[in-house]
Sequence to fold (410 residues):
Amino acid sequence: MDYKNLEKQDKEVFVAIQKEEERQKNELELIASENYVSSAVMEAMASVLTNKYSEGYPGKRYYGGNALIDDVEELAIKRAKKLFQAEHVNVQALSGSPANAAVYFAFLRPGDKVLGLKLDHGGHLSHGHPVNFSGMLYDFVQYEVDPETGFIDMDKVAEIARKEKPKMIVAGFSAYSREIEWERFKEIADEVGAYTFADIAHTAGLIAGKQMKNPVPIFDVVSTTTHKTLRGPRGAMIMCKEKFSKQVDRAVFPGMQGGPHDHITAAKAVAFGEALQDDFVEYAKQVILNAQELSKCLIEKGYQIVSGGTDNHLVVVDLSDKNIGGKDAEVLLEKVGISVSRSTIPNDLKPPMNPSGIRLGTPALTSRGMKEKEIKKLADLIDRALNNDNIDIIKKEVREICKEFLLPIN
Ligand code: DSN
Fold:
């Protein structure tokens, strides 16, 4: 990208950004929560909209000069509604955890009981972990995956729900690779009188691209980030049934946040516009095919994959039978130019800082145009790196792939 003003004015920041751009171009990105936005999304983010204050909602702002901001926010809302068949959308949430905080704030009182997926079983910090605000403010009970299959045990979820009678059931994850039984969650929640909350931060793009089931028409409230598989700017949104619209909007503003980030709202509108195009369906399909190929190739090389495969964009590799932990694997792969994230595995005996697995994802590589052929090669490079093959040679091979598959920016 062109940073000529930055280069002239602030060499230090310019150099750091430029080096990071080079790193992204020359390395392979397998972090399941990352992606590359288009130049159009990037331009909207870098626009003059960052200068504006617009606390409130379209038509009801606390500042003047917002007519055009209203248009942009309404466009983002209209496109999001169409993408997810949502009755109501709030596009102002700043990121995933703040969006989830706003959802809890809208539906719960401190101390209320909530049921969520445990972190080391693929859940998220904001789904009730004790070190997170969610676990501190609310009385979370946690469900797990079946130790044999690695799939969420829905009978167990029902059993815990009947016993604990939570006010809300949270379905969603950051390291779970299987389709979620949204209808079953809804049945269980209805039986015990709980609200249903889906966090689709990871799979929103796969749902928008019609490759995974959509909880929005089923659940009371759904949050998502906009920067993962959905391939938009960093940010989030909350979708809910019309009857909850006022409490959700009030929870975001004035409950949790001040002025929305209008430049990001504009970039969300652009990304949603891209996700409404036919080629996004092809993209979402390929993301999953690539993840399934990666899982298959790694299994052939003797790796254990949690749940034995994947239905989505991510693969959790269980390294507990290898001579390397998740942290060292992450560091070693970084040395050859492959970025992954260390990950806990279900019932991990090791701590999150040095867990027993790594999480791999295909959204970013698929945005570069990579398909099964390149994924096969990549599985080979990962295996060689983890087996301490010559680092310089692997690094060179990574570079070769990167030269052929450019970032989608200009
Ligand atoms: N950091 C995100 C992820 O990697 O899944 C979740 O917060």
Summary: The domain at 43-275 is CATH 3.40.640.10 (Aspartate Aminotransferase; domain 2). The mean pLDDT is 97. The two ends are 6 Å apart (CA to CA). The CA atoms of residues 276 and 297 lie 32 Å apart.
